[in-house]
Inverse folding.
């Protein structure tokens, strides 16, 4: 393979954005079609990439290595079984976001599409970079378009939320930058593949782990640094919330797997109880808070915190099931939370209210909407037959293997999850139709149907048949755990389990 | 005679200044001509510098004047900065009714002084250069003499600068007294670090220099002077003298006193940390853009000093990379300031930027790029500047400095974000004029593109700078 397929995946949306930038008309539909076309082509390329991808090996594939910062950092990209799924998730969600702007974005449509496309480039870049500096570059650069998306097209408190999002994330990340440069001086390279082989001296691992953790914990978000997320979600426009929930949060989970486990096994082993504790608090606390929310978007935001708690829990069980479960949970949550935010967006466009009490009895007005919303609600609470179940089940299996008590507490989270999601559904869809304004609103239009069904199909498909996902990640995860245990035996026998 | 070739740029620029003075006296209404001529002459000076042999170190005049890679590069930076300042400020000067022949001539004088500073290898030569550039700057600061603020800033700068020059001279005399020479190399060879007198001398000189680059705690003049001076002079203040003073910093610390690094390193680290934190915190409350630039330049000097404090060639190089990128960012920022004009009146508060993105999408996009770059967000040039500095800082395991520096970038990000918020999130106000000069547009486009596309060829600048080896 000489064709730089990954670089073209990264570059294509930016080229589309440049094209939009130089186009004359600012609000007409041509811009939208250009954006849709580029992102859809990108989706096809990523599917083709999955087809070409060889799941039987854990070495990085489609690797490109170019000199970049001379004698110091190379531009290196490549994918393994873990990253490819996130790339496909990104390229799937982006075109759906672009379709969804139809009703939501009224002003400066062109600028919005440019921001979304640039964002896609950066997100794909995060998931395929194989060098710490390149990773950091993509990871941080995403702040700029997201800040603008929240700030320009957001709701009433958008300025506050945009600032909070930006500064929280930046604060977490600067420590990671210190750690990355330190790794360069300790190990002599920032190339991940080489670092995997070399290993990092045990005496530095704890501090470095914490520096990376500070960044990923903010981004995940873990309790107690999750407070930016509800604000950002609530104020962002629908497409922004979708990107944030579906993909941006996954960068952190991906980072935990790729960097925290891969580079600092000794420290990861040492700090597993900390991560467990924070994850459990996130699961229980965020679920309880979600129960009390009156704003639909806020409720879903808190449910994201709880679901990401499951993800971090699963990752740090360091078992085959736990990590696979976490990855599937992330993919599934990417689809489900995107769908839920889009569902909220659908009624928000009609009623301009996110408050649960505005609604009630929607089932008689919007039957098609109610069916799809139910499907996503059930997927969010992890009903068997949806992709949400596969992930949660595997995570809990991994957790039971590692620590019984933790698994039991986490299981409560599943019950709470069912409680707040079903209660939300009951209050919005069933009940008496009190608000007379609701009578006038139309059911789903074609583009909304298309968006929601394109999310519903993979949710159901992978719920019944998760084989393709598991096949793709199995070898990579297995190899990761092997390497982890090997390094643990080499460097840190005293903290071995 | 052969040696005179090497200082042909200095000779040429001195002759040009005299020629322009005479021309200005004898030819009526020649401001425009002299303005353009001075840009041309500056560029010729730049070419003369480029003709100097590369990668060789030559000393002149009894070892008191040195021509090497460092001096050539920094002189070119100074000249490019000066040429840009002259070329983009024409319209501003005309509208402010200070389009006089003295303006370009004073800038040339100041640049000549800086070139002498940059090449100096002797305390006396260094002082002569410093005074030449400062004298020109005093006049420039109060150039808009009908305005109270401008005169005030000139006077303020003069008084405080004279005080710092006094301290600096006292330091020079102490060093002369304890080492027996004013020549950097001789001082370096005869150094006896047990003498506390020498340490005092270093401290006094560092105070004087810190004043010139407005490092905390010697920054008090900067906000007032930046705000009061004509905007084009503020731009000159913000970039060009810093390049020269930083070079003197490098030469002074690393040539004669490298052995005493234990003595001066903590001072530089303190200056650096104090400037970074103060620059970030104090800028938050500002509403005037020129004042804000003053505080942000204090912060940025802190990062450049962080690179200097390391004590390695990489550190020096990183701080030169930093100051070059900083110069480009400031050129862009001021180009935007020059574009904020409505009915022959310039605006300079943050609120005047309100909703700029709706009326002037291109201008606001450039500002967005420049501001995010100043905040150090990747993949813009400002990030790489910080990255190189912290790379060299962490190499020496100075983690405290690195962490404080990076945390203060987060604080600083807040006020840059605030400007972006005003531009992009707030309600639109009236449109600004769009009849900008070609040079202004070119300079804005040039700096924005350079900042935006720096990540494609990030090692070009580093390669050039890596030819500078002082230690």
């Amino acid at each position: 393979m000489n064709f730089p397929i990954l670089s073209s995946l990264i570059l294509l949306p930016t080229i589309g954005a440049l094209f939009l930038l130089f186009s004359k008309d600012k609000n007409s539909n041509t811009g939208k079609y250009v954006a849709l076309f580029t992102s859809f082509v990108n989706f096809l390329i990523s599917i083709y990439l999955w087809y070409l991808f060889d799941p039987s090996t854990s070495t990085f594939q489609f690797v490109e290595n170019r000199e970049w910062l001379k004698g110091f950092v190379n531009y290196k990209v490549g994918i393994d079984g873990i990253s490819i799924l996130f790339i496909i998730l990104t390229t799937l969600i982006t075109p759906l976001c672009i379709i969804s702007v139809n009703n939501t974005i009224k002003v400066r449509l062109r600028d919005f599409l440019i921001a979304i496309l640039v964002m896609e480039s950066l997100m794909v870049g995060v998931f395929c970079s194989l060098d710490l500096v390149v990773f950091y570059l993509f990871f941080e650069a995403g702040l700029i378009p997201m800040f603008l998306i929240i700030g320009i097209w957001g709701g009433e408190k958008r300025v506050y939320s945009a600032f909070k999002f930006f500064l929280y994330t930046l604060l977490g990340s600067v420590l990671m930058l210190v750690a990355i440069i330190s790794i360069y001086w300790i190990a002599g390279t920032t190339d991940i593949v080489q670092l995997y082989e070399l290993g990092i001296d045990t005496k530095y691992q704890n501090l470095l782990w914490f520096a990376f953790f500070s960044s990923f914990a903010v981004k995940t978000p873990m309790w107690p640094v999750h407070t930016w997320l509800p604000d950002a979600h609530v104020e962002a426009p629908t497409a922004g919330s979708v990107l944030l929930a579906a993909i941006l949060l996954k960068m952190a989970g991906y980072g935990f797997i790729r960097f925290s486990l891969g580079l600092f096994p000794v420290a990861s082993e040492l700090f597993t109880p900390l991560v467990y504790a924070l994850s459990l608090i996130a699961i229980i606390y965020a679920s309880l808070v979600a129960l009390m929310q009156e704003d639909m978007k806020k409720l879903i935001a808190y449910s994201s915190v709880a679901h990401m708690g499951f993800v971090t829990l699963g990752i740090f069980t360091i078992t085959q099931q736990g990590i696979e479960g976490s990855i599937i949970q992330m993919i599934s949550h990417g689809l489900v939370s995107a769908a839920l935010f889009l569902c909220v967006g659908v009624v928000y466009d009609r009623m301009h209210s996110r408050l649960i009490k505005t609604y009630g009895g929607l089932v008689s007005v919007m039957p098609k909407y109610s069916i799809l919303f139910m499907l996503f609600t059930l997927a969010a609470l992890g009903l068997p037959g949806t992709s949400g179940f596969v992930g949660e089940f595997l995570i809990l299996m991994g957790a039971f293997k590692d620590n019984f008590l933790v698994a039991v507490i986490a299981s409560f989270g599943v019950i709470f999850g069912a409680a707040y999601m079903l209660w939300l559904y009951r209050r919005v869809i069933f009940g008496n139709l009190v608000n007379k304004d609701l009578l006038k609103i139309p059911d789903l239009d074609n583009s909304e149907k298309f968006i929601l069904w394109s999310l519903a199909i993979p949710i159901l498909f992978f719920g019944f048949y998760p084989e393709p996902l598991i096949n793709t990640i199995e070898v990579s995860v297995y190899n990761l755990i092997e390497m982890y245990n090997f390094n643990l035996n080499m460097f840190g026998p005293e903290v071995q389990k | 005679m052969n040696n005179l070739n090497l200082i042909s740029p200095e000779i040429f620029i001195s002759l040009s200044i005299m020629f322009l003075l005479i021309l200005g006296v004898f030819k009526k209404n020649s401001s425009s001509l002299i303005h353009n001529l001075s840009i041309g002459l500056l560029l010729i000076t730049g070419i003369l510098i480029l003709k100097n042999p590369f990668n060789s170190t030559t000393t002149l005049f009894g070892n008191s004047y040195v021509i090497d890679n460092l001096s050539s590069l920094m002189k070119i930076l100074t000249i490019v900065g000066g040429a840009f300042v002259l070329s983009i400020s024409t319209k501003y000067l005309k509208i402010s009714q200070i389009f006089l022949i003295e303006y370009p001539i004073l800038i040339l004088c100041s640049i000549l002084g800086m070139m002498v500073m940059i090449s100096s290898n002797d305390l006396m030569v260094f002082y002569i250069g410093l005074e030449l550039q400062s004298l020109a700057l005093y006049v420039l600061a109060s150039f808009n003499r009908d305005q109270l603020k401008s005169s005030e800033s000139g006077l303020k700068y003069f008084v405080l600068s004279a005080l710092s020059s006094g301290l600096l001279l006292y330091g020079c005399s102490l060093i002369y007294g304890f080492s027996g020479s004013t020549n950097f190399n001789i001082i370096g060879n005869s150094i006896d670090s047990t003498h506390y007198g020498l340490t005092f001398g270093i401290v006094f000189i560092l105070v004087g220099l810190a004043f010139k680059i407005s490092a905390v705690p010697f920054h008090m003049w900067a906000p007032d002077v930046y705000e009061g001076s004509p905007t084009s002079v503020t731009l000159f203040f913000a970039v060009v003298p810093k390049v020269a003073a930083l070079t003197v910093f490098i030469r002074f610390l690393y040539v004669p006193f490298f052995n005493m690094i234990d003595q001066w390193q903590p001072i530089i680290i303190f200056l650096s940390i104090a400037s970074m934190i103060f620059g970030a915190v104090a800028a938050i409350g500002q509403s005037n853009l020129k004042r804000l630039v003053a505080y942000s330049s204090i912060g940025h000097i802190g990062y450049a000093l962080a690179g200097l404090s390391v004590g390695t060639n990489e550190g020096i190089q990183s701080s030169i990379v930093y100051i070059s990128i900083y110069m480009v960012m400031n050129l862009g920022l001021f180009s935007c300031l020059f574009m904020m004009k409505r009915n022959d009146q310039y605006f300079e508060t943050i609120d005047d930027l309100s909703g700029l993105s709706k009326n002037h999408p291109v201008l606001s996009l450039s500002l967005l790029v420049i501001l995010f770059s100043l905040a150090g967000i990747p993949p813009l040039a400002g990030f790489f500047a910080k990255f190189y500095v912290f790379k060299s800082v962490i190499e020496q395991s100075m983690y405290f400095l690195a962490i404080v520096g990076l945390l203060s970038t987060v604080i600083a990000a807040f006020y840059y974000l605030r400007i972006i918020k005003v531009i992009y999130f707030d309600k639109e106000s009236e449109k600004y004029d769009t009849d900008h000069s070609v040079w202004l547009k070119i300079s804005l486009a040039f700096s924005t593109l350079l900042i935006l596309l720096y990540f494609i060829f990030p090692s070009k600048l580093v390669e050039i700078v890596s030819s500078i080896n002082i230690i």
Q: What stands out?
A: The two ends of chain A are 42 Å apart (CA to CA). The mean pLDDT of chain A is 87. Residues 5-495 of chain A form one domain. Chain A touches chain B at residues 68-70, 111, 133, 136-137, 140-141, 143-144, 147-148, 151-152, 158-159, 162-163, 166-167, 170-171, 174-175, 177-178, 181-182, 184-185 (CB under 8 Å).
